[in-house]
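Practice problem 4.
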């Protein structure tokens, strides 16, 4: 097979990054090597996201560049996968006639079918089939792996496009997941991140053997050689005591929970159809802190939801202040097609939304900065990722709390090393490799 090259651009969430790794793994088997050079690639792929409008706009600009490449080299193939492709379906070809293949998030394996078929005329694949088959992933990092435990979402958050792009929730069977993680560990993986739109509702509707997310955590924790388990994202409604206890009792489950708040006002939460109140959210945070006292808690927050008053927004600020998140992703509400919230009357002027966002970010950062000081003077276990982005003379990795740690000292990517923390900002920790702790460990 002649060597061919693929250039892939990924937008959106970790689920998409994982799907992209699987696409590259599958393409590897078909003789496509990844390239950084889009202009020279035989296959230009986009793995798209539609969670917010901005992602759409950025993607369209990229797609136009790909079209220019195809004008110069007409044999270049252009593929568009992921949520945005799913949300517009066959319109992709009408809007962008130069696209050769388009497929939804469930159809990554169809890309292989397309590339190996005799006729490369434009085709789209948008059925929900649950899982993307069992594709080998081409991992970006040797020791970190992603595992998709469920697809789709049964919630109906009024702002969210996911239920219409990724369909109803389907969980993968327990044994299959345990086998997959065992295989990853045998392959050198030390940290896995379990992915799903609502990870902690995993298993409940599995037939013939219903299960629970807490059981899954315990089964995976028992795998010899697996050092770290992460998961994203749980839903506050399904964050029950059994999950928190499994989290507390399983040594490999990291001290970090990403628990999306979205809004601090129960009135707005109701309009968002989030199915919990401000009090319930605070109660879940208290439960986590009771059993996992040092747990880092991060969140997602949307500002400027239709009808959000200054008083509602104040409630969001209050919750942020009270919880003291270790970090937060903050978003200005963006109406998405086919969602209930897109039809709601939005009377909050854009400037007000932007001003609220600034106030929110300021508070999030101040609290995250304060929270991070608790690490200074401690020695944390860091999984080394590579050289630091800003200063290549230092190394970069992540601690179990999911903070980036930049540190001085010799270490190899993939190693778990003790780092003495000397400084902390809202985003990153700095430190030095602890030779004493390292020597003691051997
Ligand atoms: N507008 C703004 N933010 C959104 N998110 C999801 N949909 C929207 C939207 N329509 C945010 C939520 C979610 C995160 C992944 O993206 O906070 O948790
Ligand atoms: Fe969207 Fe809500 Fe499902 Fe998350 S839980 S994917 S926000 S519908």
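Answer key:
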């Amino acid at each position: 097979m002649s060597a061919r090259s693929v250039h892939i651009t990924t937008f959106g969430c970790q689920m998409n990054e994982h799907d992209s790794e699987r696409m590259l793994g599958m393409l590897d088997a078909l003789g496509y090597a990844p390239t950084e050079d889009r202009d020279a690639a035989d296959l230009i792929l986009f793995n798209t996201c539609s969670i917010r409008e901005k992602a759409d706009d950025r993607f369209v600009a990229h797609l136009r560049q790909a079209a220019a490449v195809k004008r110069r080299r007409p044999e270049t193939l252009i593929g568009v996968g992921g949520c945005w492709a799913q949300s517009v379906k066959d319109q992709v070809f009408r809007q962008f006639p130069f696209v050769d293949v388009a497929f939804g998030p469930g159809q990554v394996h169809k890309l292989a079918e397309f590339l190996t078929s005799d006729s490369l005329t434009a085709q789209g694949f948008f059925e929900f089939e649950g899982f993307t088959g069992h594709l080998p992933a081409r991992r970006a990092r040797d020791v970190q792996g992603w595992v998709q435990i469920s697809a789709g979402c049964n919630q109906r958050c009024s702002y969210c496009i996911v239920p219409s792009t990724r369909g109803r929730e389907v969980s993968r069977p327990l044994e299959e997941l345990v086998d997959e993680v065992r295989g990853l560990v045998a392959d050198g993986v030390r940290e896995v991140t379990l992915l799903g739109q609502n990870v902690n509702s995993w298993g409940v509707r599995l037939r013939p053997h219903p299960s629970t997310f807490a059981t899954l955590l315990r089964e995976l924790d028992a795998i010899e050689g697996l050092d770290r388990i992460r998961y994203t994202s749980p839903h506050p409604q399904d964050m029950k005591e059994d999950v928190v206890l499994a989290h507390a009792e399983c040594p490999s489950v990291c001290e970090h929970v990403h628990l999306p708040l979205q809004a601090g006002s129960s009135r707005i939460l109701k309009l968002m159809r989030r199915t919990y109140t401000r009090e319930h959210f605070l109660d879940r945070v208290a439960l986590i802190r009771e059993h996992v006292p040092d747990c880092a808690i991060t969140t997602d927050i949307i500002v400027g939801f239709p009808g959000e008053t200054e008083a509602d927004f104040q409630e969001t600020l209050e919750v942020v202040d009270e919880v003291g998140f270790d970090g937060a992703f903050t978003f200005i509400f963006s109406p998405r097609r086919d969602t209930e919230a897109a039809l709601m009357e939005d009377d909050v002027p854009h400037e007000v939304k932007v001003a609220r966002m600034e106030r929110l970010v300021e508070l999030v950062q101040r609290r995250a900065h304060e929270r991070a000081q608790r690490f200074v003077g401690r020695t944390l276990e860091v999984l080394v990722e590579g050289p630091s982005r800003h200063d290549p003379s230092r190394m970069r990795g992540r601690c179990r709390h999911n903070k980036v740690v930049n540190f001085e000292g010799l270490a190899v990517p993939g190693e778990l090393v003790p780092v003495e923390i000397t400084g902390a900002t809202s985003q990153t920790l700095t430190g030095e490799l602890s030779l004493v702790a390292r020597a003691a460990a051997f």
